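Support request, please re-run this one:
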Amino acid sequence: MGGGIKCREYESRENNVQKRGKCRVTILVCVLVPVLAVLLQGCSAGKIQNEKIGDIDFTVVKEEDYPDEVKALIEKQKYEPFQSVFLDGAYMYVLVGYGEQNTTGYSIRIEGVYETPTSIVVDTNLLGPQPDAELTGENTFPLIVLKMKPSDKEVACV
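Re-run finished. Output below.
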């Protein structure tokens, strides 16, 4: 019979250890969450570093003027949205595709092409067909190719 009491005492100690473990986890969470929240709010340095420092000169390339390598990249990727960069030595080509669309009438608006301290940002938007546009059921692949001076910076398409 004494063995039963010892067993309960043992279980009781085990439960206390588990409770202390849960308590430690709760305290840890209660302390870490507010600290992390404060630290994350203070992370504006990343935003400052990504501020626009200047516009980038670029040209929109006509389809008939695409280099063969650019044509090949487009053909491989055109069915899904994509962003690619191709360097030919003299120029950098930035390709932005919006994937397969089920009708005609789409266009792409360039919101901006600019430089930050760490990257080149290409900001584009796909515009749907105009309400008064004559549409066909033909599938299309809206994309744009921009040509600019080469850069060692990362290109970010947004």
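The chain has two domains: 2-43, 54-157. DSSP finds three helices and eight strands in the chain.
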